[in-house]
């Protein structure tokens, strides 16, 4: 499991042998069952996880109990409630495993020590954080300014490895659409390009 993490990091930058040793000593390998929660509302997100295998979603519940998906994570992505992680304040979110999954996990305390002791690792994380912030800003803009069709097409193009694995109602929530609207959009997109609706049977859930 850790070898996959090291391979990912080496694609992003250069790490010394000492830094890799620090990472190995600070990390915990964790297996998570499908539907298991890593975080629930009211808890502090005192960890950050690198997904080696599987998929997760981060979501919030509105006052009427409706789920609002904020983020997905699959292989080679990171998962946490980053606001709670950085602030130490209780989270408003839930993190749920959508498949049987494997994580490389770091506590907040050890993460902070790593960033201080491993400058090359910190540079990698800083670069990833900047890219993630840009992607998050772009998603907000698209969701508030574009049509449902554009939102869906952008999602399929940007996350080709994701949309085949996620139930449609979760994708609809992530895009700020109703399930009925997403079904209509997919049907229309399929008439233009059949490859746009190649969603697996579990995606119909």
CATH homology-level superfamily of the largest domain? Jelly Rolls
> How many structural units, i.e. domains?
2
Q: Quick check: average pLDDT? A: 91
**Proportion of strand residues:** 15-25%
Which stretches of 5+ consecutive residues score pLDDT under 50? 196-205
Largest sheet: 4 strands, antiparallel
Quaternary form: single chain
Strand order of the largest sheet: 1-8-3-6
Say how many strands there are. Answer: 8
Give the CA-based shape. Answer: globular
Instruction: Give, in order, the helices and strands.
Output: HHEEEEEEHEEHHHHH
CATH-defined topology of the largest domain: Jelly Rolls
Instruction: Please give the CATH class of the largest domain.
Output: Mainly Beta
CATH architecture of the largest domain: Sandwich
Domain Cyclic nucleotide-binding: 15-115
InterPro entries: cNMP-bd_dom, cNMP-bd_dom_sf, RmlC-like_jellyroll
Protein name: Crp/Fnr family transcriptional regulator
Pfam family, one: cNMP_binding
Task: Describe the protein.
Helix content is 47%, strand content 20%. By secondary structure, the protein is of the alpha+beta class. It has two domains: 2-118, Sandwich (Jelly Rolls), CATH 2.60.120; 146-204. The chain has a four-stranded antiparallel sheet with strand order 1-8-3-6. A four-stranded antiparallel sheet has the order 2-7-4-5. Helix 2 (17-26) packs antiparallel against helix 4 (108-117), helix 6 crosses helix 8 and helix 7 (168-175) packs across helix 8 (179-192). The chain is globular, with a radius of gyration of 18 Å. Residues 196-205 have low confidence and may be disordered.
């Amino acid at each position: 499991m850790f070898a996959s993490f090291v391979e990912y990091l080496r694609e992003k930058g250069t790490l010394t042998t000492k830094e890799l040793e620090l990472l190995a000593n600070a990390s915990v390998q964790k297996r998570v069952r499908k539907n298991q929660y890593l975080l629930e509302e009211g808890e502090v997100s005192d960890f950050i996880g690198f997904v080696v295998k599987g998929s997760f979603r981060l979501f919030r519940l509105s006052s009427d109990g409706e789920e609002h998906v904020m983020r997905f994570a699959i292989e080679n992505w990171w998962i946490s409630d980053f606001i709670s992680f950085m602030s130490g304040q209780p989270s408003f979110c839930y993190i749920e495993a959508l498949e049987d999954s494997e994580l490389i996990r770091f506590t907040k305390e050890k993460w902070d020590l790593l960033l201080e002791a491993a400058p090359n690792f910190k540079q990698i994380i800083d670069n990833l954080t900047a890219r993630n912030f840009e992607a998050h800003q772009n998603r907000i803009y698209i969701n508030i300014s574009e049509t449902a069709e554009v939102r869906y097409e952008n999602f399929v193009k940007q996350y080709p490895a994701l949309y085949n694995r996620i139930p449609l109602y979760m994708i609809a929530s992530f895009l700020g659409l109703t399930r009925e609207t997403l079904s209509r959009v997919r049907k229309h997109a399929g008439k233009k390009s059949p490859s746009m609706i190649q969603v697996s049977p579990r995606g119909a859930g």
